[in-house]
Predict the 3D structure of the following.
Amino acid sequence: MNDRIQNLRRRLEEPLLVSSPVNVRYLTGLVSSNAAVLVEPDRARLFTDFRYAEAARAVKGVELVELPRDLFARLAETLSGRIGFEAGHLTYARYETLAAGGLELVARRGLVEGLRAAKDEAELAAIRRGAAIANEIYERLAAERFVGRTERDLAWLIESSLHELGAQGLSFPVIVASGPTAALPHADPGERVIGEGETVIVDVGCVVEGYCSDCTRTFVTGELPEELARAYEVCLRAQEAGLTAVAPGADGVAVDRIARDVIDTAGLGERFGHGLGHGVGLEVHEQPWLNREFPSTLAPGNVVTVEPGIYLPGLGGVRIEDLVVVGVDGPEVLTTCTKELVTVH
Amino acid sequence: MNDRIQNLRRRLEEPLLVSSPVNVRYLTGLVSSNAAVLVEPDRARLFTDFRYAEAARAVKGVELVELPRDLFARLAETLSGRIGFEAGHLTYARYETLAAGGLELVARRGLVEGLRAAKDEAELAAIRRGAAIANEIYERLAAERFVGRTERDLAWLIESSLHELGAQGLSFPVIVASGPTAALPHADPGERVIGEGETVIVDVGCVVEGYCSDCTRTFVTGELPEELARAYEVCLRAQEAGLTAVAPGADGVAVDRIARDVIDTAGLGERFGHGLGHGVGLEVHEQPWLNREFPSTLAPGNVVTVEPGIYLPGLGGVRIEDLVVVGVDGPEVLTTCTKELVTVH
């Protein structure tokens, strides 16, 4: 029996058609861009097309149904009755396709995502391995030359090191953002040559056994303008305040608030426009959330980032991000590389 | 004035809310996971959150509106009247959010995707550069040792070479599938050590200026079992038959049919379970389609793959894929590396 499907089944009021590829992967192990699982009280069926059928045959505890590539048109023809669907994932077009088949459709949200938020030991082990790789990356970077190299060159050095250290891929494209570019929270590494007296934000995540890690450190290439030096100090205090608030039962909005207050008090609140953190697992952004917009309550086994940033347009930016397991005995910080400001040359 | 937005506007019966990140990028150049464009007769507004606002300020021909991260809840509050939306992209949950705001919503499909299918010269130039990189990769591979190396090791060699040759990223994770693994059309490179007398499918695409390329060649490590050798010969004939059918006005289902007939006639039809090809551009799978399920008509400036495959479970597989521009003077094959069976050691 598949425990994850069994856990999901207990939460259902009607059969659920799981169509998010990540949720399908969580329930079955199958990695596919075109698959769905229908979880019913007495059985679970896995639908996919020819391309994934061979891999799908290895999945235990489900009945495999191979369909043409246009899965949802066929599901509309073959399924009947009352069925829940993943409203946060299914497109309106697919909803219409299913509805045209006469199904009684019930919009459900976050059922599998809720299960995914609490990691089991095997999942935590994979995430810990990814975080250990990140730690090694930042230690190596501290010994690297930055000034005179392009962001893209450094990003590739990081990517090569990730591979060498056993990562199976990237959680997201490596971010190396220097000088004024560091004022863009989501910058792509470019041909900009890193200069002296700048901050360089390095945001790296890798994939181990399907699970993501995520870590950010900000390096400095020589003496900083006072505003940026102060921003780093404020950001670090905010980050540590946020960390101490991570505990089972904590409210994500409140944890965000605790870190944000530090930055607000320093008069830099306007310069911290994103949320404090997010869950990390099969996806690099998933439940639970530490921000003002999506309420979450932390629980043991959650894995979250704590990552305040301060961005000064035209000048530069700083961000410090740890990856943390929410534990009953306090937060377990996986990204143990130093958060002291590291000067590189 | 932004020509792409202007072209889109001419096709609209009501204002369109463009929410697919790729479509937003096509219209504005902005790369963002959380942005939308509302195209109205007399103006276009770009909505995004803090993280992308700095980059969005550089977009010409649109009014920038910075919103909190939960864009759609705010759009529901602020927009009114009759508005089209991208039914093939918008989730049912977001549809519900918008509908709750009292908007009169009209489901539209493929409007921007239809524009994207016909590439302009700048887009073709980027795709040609990507294809040229792929050609170089396959030439280098022909001189590499395969036997005794893992799939993962070869995949990394390819990834490193792509970077060195100027690619900005991968269109999709490199596929190196050897021996029985080659019977899985979408296999991840693993720790399998490549042996003698096997086929090795190498499917590679890279990104240049945001545009994808896509190419597959099948190598052989010594003498093949007769079934596989024959499969390669049949696959190549099918691929060339498909290529000759690529022309403006051609029906995608018919082009697929022409290649499929060759494989059917050889008695291997059951072993070619996927479509013949797909469009390639900002996405590696986009309009138009060459398969039995999604009707398309080819037009000048389309870029498509032609990629039959034959998969023999337990034994191995073959796939041969070219990237082709649909031209009025005939197909322009961008992937010019040899399709003769190349033996590696």
About this structure: The radius of gyration of chain A is 22 Å. Chain A has a mean pLDDT of 96. Chain A has two domains: 3-117, 121-343. Chain A touches chain B at residues 31-32, 49-55, 68-70, 85, 87-93, 95-96, 107, 109, 156, 159-160, 163, 169, 173, 183-188, 273-275, 291-294, 311, 313 (CB under 8 Å).
